[in-house]
Amino acid sequence: MAILSVGWDVRMLWAIMIFSARAYLVLLFAITIWIIYSLWRISRSLPKVADKQAASPNVRSTVVRSLFRVDQLLVFLRLLFGVVLADAIFGTLRAVADSRMSLSEYPLHAALGPVTALFLVVCLVFLVLHVLTWIVKVRTRKVIPDCYV
Predict the structure, then answer these.
(1) Is residue 85 within 8 Å of 118, Cβ to Cβ?
(2) How far apart are CA 6 and CA 8, in angstroms?
(3) Spatial distance between the Cα atoms of 114 and 32, rounded to a whole number of angstroms
(4) How far apart, in Å, are the Cα atoms of 105 and each of 95, 108, 111, 114?
(5) Is residue 54 classed as helix, strand or coil in its secondary structure?
(6) Mean model confidence pLDDT for the chain
(7) Which three-class secondary structure state does DSSP give residue 7?
(8) Which of 29, 81, 94, 109 is the most buried (most CB within 10 A)?
(9) What are the helix (H) ranges across the chain?
(10) 8 Å CB contact between 67 and 140
(11) Three-state SS at 2
């Protein structure tokens, strides 16, 4: 069974998600918009940096600092995602263990569905951000050969 073959109800998933996962998703999408805007600004400034006479060292250092900030933010988001995912998995396992005491047991595969959906969405966002960052870094290295970001 493929994950994309399952019909997901987004409102239902949002309703049963724990608060930390919801807060993380809101933070992720807000920071994703900021990162895309930053990468767009960097790519728009690369022609100015390519012009050796017009480009000052300050403009080049601004590009490098911006790329470094984007990298650090992505690492932070990935580490925070690990914390949120671990919390969601432990909560799910605890709910399944507690359901064994009731009359109807909650199946593990059904309990892990929302966690899997969270994992899929976050990984897809990280994939897009990684590809965009990679493209901008390649373009930056063409313009600034001694730049190792």
Answers:
(1) yes
(2) 6
(3) 22
(4) 10, 9, 11, 17
(5) coil
(6) 84
(7) coil
(8) 81
(9) 10-16, 19-50, 57-99, 108-111, 113-143
(10) yes
(11) coil
- Per DSSP, the residues of 79-106 read HHHHHHHHHHHHHHHHHHHHHTTSSSPP
Q: Is residue 139 within 8 Å of 46, Cβ to Cβ?
A: yes
Residue that is written with structure tokens 């022609």 in the block: 47
Structure pTM?
0.81
The model's pLDDT over 12-62, given as tens digits with 9 standing for 90+, comes to 777 778 888 899 999 999 999 999 999 999 998 888 777 765 556 777 788
Which tokens in the block code for residue 28? Answer: 């992720």
Provide the angle, in degrees to the nearest 10, between the axes of the packed helices 19-50 and 57-99. Answer: 160
Quick one: tokens of 42?
A: 């960097």
Q: How many residues does this entry show for the chain? A: 149
What is the Cα 147 distance to its own chain's centre? Answer: 25
| pLDDT at residue 30, rounded to an integer | 96
Contact between 3 and 114 (Cβ < 8 Å): no
- The residue behind tokens 């109807």 is 104
Closest to 38 measured CA to CA, from 59, 68, 10: 68
